[in-house]
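Students often ask what a holo structure prediction actually looks like on paper. The answer is less mysterious than it sounds. You provide the chain, you provide the ligand, and the output is a string of discrete structure tokens encoding the 3D arrangement of the protein together with 2-deoxy-2-amino glucitol-6-phosphate.
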Amino acid sequence: MCGIVGYIGHRQAYPVVLKGLKRLEYRGYDSSGVALIDDGLRVFKKKGKVSELEEATIGQNLSGQIGIGHTRWATHGEPSDRNAHPHVSALGKLAMIHNGIIENYASIKEELQNKGYTFKSDTDTEVLLNFIEDIKENNGCSLEEALRIALKRVVGAYCILLVDCNDPHTLLAARKGSPLVIGIGKGEHFLASDASPIIEYTKEVVYVNDYQIAIVKADELILKNLGNERQTPFITKLDMELAAIEKGGYDHFMLKEIYEQPSTIHDCLRGRLKPDVNQIIMGGVDVNLDQLSKAARIMIVACGTSWHAGLVAEYLIEELCRIPVEVEYASEFRYRNPVINPGDVIIAISQSGETADTLVALENAKEKGAIIFGVVNAVGSSIARLSHAGAYTHSGPEIGVASTKAFTGQLAVLSMMALKIAQAKGTISPERFSHLLQELAAIPAKVAKILEDTTGIEAIAKKYKDARDFLFLGRGYNFPVALEGALKLKEISYIHAEGYPAAEMKHGPIALVDDKLPVLFVATKDRYYDKIVSNVQEIKARKGRVICLATEGDTIIPSMADDVMFVPDADEVLAPMLSVVPLQLLSYYTGLALGLDVDKPRNLAKSVTVE
Ligand code: AGP
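The corresponding structure tokens follow.
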């Protein structure tokens, strides 16, 4: 997810674009850039935050009444000056910025290379830009027509802004799948990924639709479809305040990111999970499949929520692939001089890709000859670059300190990895493989179903918000979910919460149970169901306050609980992607009920880059 800003009108473009980029930094912030036209094309772009771009442009000629700007969340090509947007075409006449993924960029790039084109960056954006210029030059058509022809060939998602140094009075834009808003001013137009850079200038906006092209001049806005037919712009009035818009209308980034999960899990699966042809395509896994499937053991190294994802992966890989797995806290792993043999496989899980303990643990392991496979969200981050291979979760920037969508993205990647390795090893039947692919494909819709009505979860949060202690219990795949639920509640509400294997209670912790202690069971339908029913009864017998997370349609567990939350049924090996969502919401609503800052909890940082 990247931030897009454009301006054309009577003002100087640079201040408007730069301020707009700062408002969009929550959408991505690994590099940024601006293109301006005034007696020629000038492009400034830099790795890092927008403030670093601002510093780099001090003393430069920043004149021009037309400009485009971009703040990047990398998908193709690591964060760097050369991969930052705007990109400039081969002939140096055009500049373009892009938010989205061109899925068929490789075939287009090959065609252009066969014509002698070379590329300065690793991005799909530069490929599309040169494709547009190639069409314009070879067909002798207008830039608008070349854009239309090119977009008919594109597969994927895009929001693009395109300027031509030979026409400083026209800004072209197009959209499919990635948002684009155009603000209508007096003798000026503002373009952006959302309304936050626009609202201070005008509240009259046009939301561009998929497959539309916008031809924008200072005092004219024309919309056309890809068939070159004019379409009437539909002007609406913004009724949101700026602060709300950056959060997409949600009160907090944490809530926004919980609700993004149907689409972020879908984005993680997109292009990889192919249930219709019974395939999973993962470049990083495919090239290392031999080593992964022949590994004598697999170690997983991570911290916090990512460590919980590793525990789920342990159950998955051992069950499906029959490979021994050890899950290690990175902070322990790096200091205890672990036994690492050349060829050992280490899976590193990290949202930020910058966690110091995980990074150093991996550096040590790599020196001892281990193969590092990174499951990371931040493209081009230190852990991603240190890994021999990997798979990105494509969850987009996670702003809330508590990790939510990154966790389910990690589980989606790890599930696909385990399935691919099991298929390569022959440790999974074709029927079960095919069934799990269908089940995995259905997860985004099931998460969306959970999010349709969260009033019950909010009520439970309000009921138990004054608890001093909380227990989260689960078995099997739901044990790591119990740990994650406890961590979320601790982080967001500051209530002391512990996660435990449900059967472990009788070995001591059950002494804690009294009529004040809420005990939350993650008790979805799985192979442990009958056992967990007994565990619930053990707590009830000691007057504990029982909250249950159950499978829709279950009547036994709910009949025993004081309060219950439901999730749709799913194969137990994939169920954690569903079970965790109500627990994320429980922590959010509890923190809210206690009047706490759920996006920036006390004492915490989003990425722990110190040891
Ligand atoms: C999770 O809610 C926490 N914010 C924290 O435990 C986090 O998961 C941990 O610091 C690891 O971060 P990483 O995934 O970026 O490496």
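The chain has a mean pLDDT of 94.
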